[in-house]
Amino acid sequence: MAKRDYYEVLGLQKGASKDDIKKAYRKLAIQYHPDKNPGNKDAEEKFKEATEAYEILSDDQKKAAYDQFGFAGVEGMSGGQDFSSAFHGFEDIFGDFSGIFDTFFGGSRRSSGGGSSGLRQGANLRYDIEIAFKDAVFGTKVEIQYSHSESCSSCKGTGATGGSGRKTCPTCQGSGQIRHNQGFFSVASTCPSCGGDGYIIEHPCKDCGGAGTQKKRQKIMVTIPAGVENGKRVVIPRQGDAGPNGGPPGDLYVFIQVKPHEYFERQDLDLYCAVPVSVTQAALGADIHVSTLDGKTIKVKIPPGIQNGQMLRIRDEGVPASGRRGSLYIKVMIQIPAKLSRRGRELLEELSRVEGENESPKPIPLSELAGR
Predict the structure, then answer these.
(1) Which of 60, 102, 243, 317 is the most exposed place for a label (fewest CB within 10 A)?
(2) Residues in the chain with pLDDT < 70?
(3) Rounded to whole angstroms, how far apart are CA atoms 156 and 212?
(4) Percent of the chain residues topping a pLDDT of 90
(5) For the stretch 255-265, what's the b/e string if a residue is b when 16 or more beta carbons lie within 10 angstroms of its beta carbon?
(6) 231 Cβ contact partners less than 8 Å away, ≥ 6 residues apart
(7) Which 3-state string (H, E, C) describes 175-194?
(8) Which pLDDT score, from 0 to 100, does residue 88 have?
């Protein structure tokens, strides 16, 4: 699709002044800015088209070349830039880019502390705890003690003494912001007199100093759900800091660290442990008794001829979560006796003769070792 004449794009006649070019571009940039037209490809193209036209016509050298030779005179000087580079023209006509959203969207970036924005929520807090491996698997309750800010009982969170109340800030007239012109637009900043609250307390509460909140320690019971993993968090609603001026409290985030267990490991909902068996148990098979994580004793059948490192799966003895439970995997470790009695040695020597020991073994293929 052929390019439109740059003057036509900006709605200007050839020979327009720099001020006219800036004004025309500013109007189109505000109209077609992508933040005002999310997902609108047509607006995005018009925004880029206007930016390209402004880039050429606002530069004296490029404008002269374009006026004399048209697009051929400015070939390679503009166009083809990625979308982010389209913002370069904004800095020229709008000055400080940080204030542009204030101009475009009627102050959508105003501080939440402004007097017209309502009560602010208090800060969220973090608390770190370490729990036992078993407690993480089966769940538990933990009592914690921590400091947080609560609404001042003397002034009921208002920060004012004896119901004296507060008055509208004379500097910002209650908006919580002050504005000053910068180029073509107005920049808003937090009011230095009221700190963005929009009001001033004439007689601050003596107990909280006008803050409306006081630091206190409290104890609460935290429920740790079964199956919680290391590094996860539990959110306790409304147990963070109280909001200023009677605002709602934030939340408490309890981050969980799980101590490693001496015998068990975990992968997702499955538990793993290793159990020793004797040479004869491995060769002949046996029934052994294994203690599970929750303290039960279960009977496990060792099949005859089991190999060292082989896994046995016990269903429904793993981690409980979401209405189901994982498995317990038992790794069989065959123990070779370090010392033999005379009779034991005689029996093993007889076994060697009967079974015929392989004195020239071949290496075991790596593919067979992978599953052990």
Answers:
(1) 60
(2) 1-2, 76-118, 163-164, 181-186, 369-372
(3) 7
(4) 42
(5) ebebeebeebe
(6) 255, 256, 257
(7) CCEEEEEECCEEEEEECCCC
(8) 42
Q: Provide the pLDDT for residue 306.
A: 95
Closest CA to 63 of 51, 77, 49, 50: 77
Q: Is CATH 2.60.260.20 the right assignment for the domain spanning 265-369? A: yes
Q: Classify domain 6-94 by CATH architecture.
A: Orthogonal Bundle (1.10)
Please report, for the chain, the start and end positions of each structural domain, with discontinuous segments joined by +: 6-94, 125-258, 265-369
Beta bridge partners of 256: 129
Q: What is the pLDDT of residue 370?
A: 62
Q: Which residues contact 36 (CB under 8 A, 6 or more apart)?
A: 30, 43, 104, 105
Q: What is the DSSP letter of 21?
A: H
DSSP-derived letter for residue 244 is G
pLDDT, position 142: 96
How remote is the C-alpha of 223 from its chain's centroid?
23
Structure tokens at 167: 């008055």
59-112 confidence digits (pLDDT tens): 888 888 888 777 777 776 554 444 433 444 444 454 444 344 443 443 433 333
CATH topology of domain 125-258: Chaperone, DNAj Protein; Chain A (2.10.230)
